Amino acid sequence: MDIILIPGLWLNASTWDAVVPILEEAGHRTWPLTLPGMASKDTDRTGIGLVDHVGAVVTAIDDVEGPVLLVGHSAGCGIAHAALDARVTKVAAIVHVGGFPAADGEPLLDGFEARDGEVPMPDWAEIGEDANIVDFDDVELRRLYDEAIPVPERVITDPVRLSDPRRRDVPATMVCPEYTVADLRGWLDAGVGPAELAALTQVEYVDLGGGHWPQLTQPERLAEVILRAASDA
């Protein structure tokens, strides 16, 4: 199966480097994406918005013949879900790693400060999000911050556009890293979870305890989840 891997904010295709060989050894074709403006810190990001990132994923879907498995990480989950909506007949299943599908009309994400049209990665400890980085040692954490690429502000603030209700019937796997399946189910039961997730009809929930970036800190375990989703698709 063709597996398209969509990074979250601040990272590019290299975030999947430890996962790709495991998937390919199992016989799958992988397509880790570097989204527009995210090749390096020096890349020109002028004028790039959410539609450009979603469009890059849609192009990747169009470039392969058969059905695909989409894998999104963090805010990349919302991008993956929007691409699914645009090509619902070509997506066999979707895996959301540490993130959620965004709803129509909502921004991809909020709560991050922009500087000169870009959003840099915050210091997670300073903003009280230590759970994100619990499984990094000091060297790994410094590398994460050093390699983080600012995200075009409009990727985060532009509204998501969805139009095909069939997207809700595509099998989805929700991978829960720095929060648990019980946490996520509790949010949904209380009506404070992601509304688009609550509308999905085929969802599997998987605990993958650790920090926010399992593709970096526990790639073998994450690859197992992806392989299971591919097998079931």
> Could you spell the SSE succession in H and E letters?
EHEHEHEEHEHEHHEHH
Rg value: 16 Å
Level-1 CATH class name: Alpha Beta
Question: Could you tell me the strand content as a percent range?
Answer: 15-25%
The CATH topology is what? Rossmann fold
* Number of E-type strands: 8
Instruction: Based on the coordinates given, report the CATH architecture.
Output: 3-Layer(aba) Sandwich
Q: Give me the number of helical elements.
A: 9
Q: In the CATH hierarchy, what is the superfamily?
A: Alpha/Beta hydrolase fold, catalytic domain
Residue windows where pLDDT falls under 50 for at least 5 positions: none
Largest sheet: 6 strands, parallel
**Could you give the distance between the termini?**
9 Å
In which order are the strands of the major sheet placed? 2-1-3-4-7-8
Report the helical percentage: 25-40%
- Tell me the number of structural domains: 1
Overall average pLDDT:
97
- Kindly name the structural category: alpha/beta
Q: Could you say which overall geometry the principal axes of the C-alpha atoms support?
A: globular
Features:
single chain, 233 residues, alpha/beta, Rossmann fold, 6-stranded parallel β-sheet, two-stranded antiparallel sheet
Model description:
With 233 residues, this protein is of the alpha/beta class. The protein has a single domain (2-232), classed as Alpha/Beta hydrolase fold, catalytic domain (Rossmann fold), CATH 3.40.50.1820. 33% of the residues lie in helices and 15% in strands. It has 9 helices and 8 strands. The protein has helices spanning 20-25, 50-62, 76-86, 138-147, 153-157, 181-189, 195-198, 214-217, 219-232; strands at residues 2-6, 29-32, 68-73, 91-97, 118-119, 151-152, 172-176, 203-207. Helix 2 crosses helix 3 (76-86). The protein starts with a strand and ends with a helix.
